[in-house]
Task: inverse folding
């Protein structure tokens, strides 16, 4: 079996490669959060936890047509069409999310803070589709100030 190449995660976002998450009025650099989470313990988080279920129903993704769709909607589509390639044919506008879910790597724990998913929603969606009971998570008690982006930085 061919080994997957090691995924290199940047330590912070750049102009050409960025990953961010907004919560309330603050925007966080997720790459920095991943780097800052290395010392946090990994916990097994039940997928049926209220935090996860709420995010699946309230977070929205672009559906490729300028509309919003929830992760739960995409999960339901992929549960109906268990073959990812078939789902890509039927829903080409959702290709970005279908591919991210298909390729999601469980070796990276999801990141949470105060009930919000900072990173890992596609991994959580994959785990739901695959009927997993738990997912590995790292939970921030506070978010380090250095993860704030741009105008969100607090002085």
Result:
């Amino acid at each position: 079996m061919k080994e997957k190449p090691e995924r290199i995660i940047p330590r912070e976002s750049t102009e050409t490669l960025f990953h961010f998450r907004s919560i309330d009025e603050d925007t966080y650099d997720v790459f920095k959060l991943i780097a800052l989470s290395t010392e946090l313990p990994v916990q097994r988080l039940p997928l049926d936890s209220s935090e996860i279920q709420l995010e699946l129903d309230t977070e929205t993704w672009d559906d490729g047509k300028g509309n919003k769709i929830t992760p739960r909607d995409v999960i339901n589509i992929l549960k109906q069409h268990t073959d990812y390639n078939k789902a890509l044919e039927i829903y080409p506008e959702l290709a970005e999310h279908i591919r991210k879910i298909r390729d999601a790597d469980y070796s990276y724990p999801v990141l949470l803070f105060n009930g919000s998913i900072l990173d890992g929603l596609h991994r959580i969606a994959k785990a739901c589709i695959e009927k997993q009971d738990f997912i590995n998570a790292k939970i921030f008690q506070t978010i380090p100030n250095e993860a704030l982006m741009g105008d969100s930085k607090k002085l």
User: Anything to note?
Assistant: The chain has a mean pLDDT of 83.
